[in-house]
Every structure is written in C-alpha cells, then in structure tokens.
Amino acid sequence: GRVEAAESLRPGHGGLLPRALRRRFDPADPATWASRDLLTRIGVVFQDPEHQFVAASVRAELGVGLRALGRGAARVRDEVDALLERLHLDGVADANPFTLSGGEKRRLSVGTVLATGPALIVLDEPTFGQDRSTWTDLVRLVQSILDEGRTIVSVTHDEAYLRVLGENLLPLGPAGEES
C-alpha cells in the first residue's frame, strides 16, 4: 500500500500528485510538465538507491540532473563539489556508485535529487538498511532539506524517523487505506 501511494505521486500515474500540487506548486496538471520542469519541481528517491544510478562515478551521477537542466560545465563542477562535501562523499567522488556502502548509496541517491533543487521530494523508505551512524546522518540531511523550505513526503516503516521528523502523518493500512 505504501509503495503504491508513493508511486501515485508520480506524474502520469494518477492519484495524489495532481490534486496536492495543483494548489501549492503549479495550477497546471503535472502530467503536462516538460521533463526539465519536472526536475525542478519533484524528486523521487527510491527505496533501493541502485535503481536510480545511471553514471559510472559518484561525481558524474550528481551531475546528471544539472546537465539535463542545461548548466555549463564550470557550474556543474562547482555544484557537484558542493554536494560532495555536503553529503560527505568527497572521498569517494571517483568511485562507481554500485561499489559504495549502503549509507553512501543512500546519500548519493538523495544528492541526485537535491542537485536539481525540487520543491517536493518523495523519499521511499529513506532509512532502510542504515546503521545508527548513517541513520543519524540521513535524518540530519533530511532536516536540513526541510529547513531550506522544501516539502518532503516520506513513505516509511521507521517510527523513530517519524518521531524526529514527522509533521503531518497519514498512516496507511496493509491495503493502502488510511488507518
């Protein structure tokens, strides 16, 4: 149920996104947005970070969205360097994303979304597979995103995460209905 709810947030899949965003972010139907517009409005971080990696290095992965937005090489380099530092990934910048630890993969997947600056970020099980240290780092990162004024929708089983960061909760039952 939770995964289906998160999936319904994606444009073209019907469900929650068009109604929720029509008033707050843009009156147009999100299914009509151009890809470039979508990059700066909605970002989705999958439960399995590896499902969204497309580049051969951490540095290149963080630059994918920026290049898609038409940013110049110097600006991409500067923004990627800032993200590498913010995400504590500067030591693995040239590594293949698939060789990273679980915590590093999760931070990279969040970073790929942060790069394009979307107003709404959907996180599917953001703390899955994290040890205590990487869990804490991730919660701090999510809090910093919220402090920037962005909206985050998290789909999670993690009650500790919800106690720390949860503001408006919508508990769902096994079939995806409100419980």
TrEMBL record:
It holds the Pfam family ABC_tran. It comes from the Bacteria. Keywords: ATP-binding, Nucleotide-binding, Transport. GO terms for molecular function: ATP binding; ATP hydrolysis activity; ATPase-coupled transmembrane transporter activity. InterPro entries: ABC_transporter-like_ATP-bd (IPR003439), ABC_transpr_CbiO/EcfA_su (IPR015856), ECF_ABC_transporter_ATP-bd (IPR050095), P-loop_NTPase (IPR027417). GO terms for cellular component: ATP-binding cassette (ABC) transporter complex. Residues 28-127 form the ABC transporter domain. Coiled coil: none annotated. Belongs to the ABC transporter superfamily. This is ABC transporter, ATP-binding protein. It comes from Propionibacterium acidifaciens F0233.
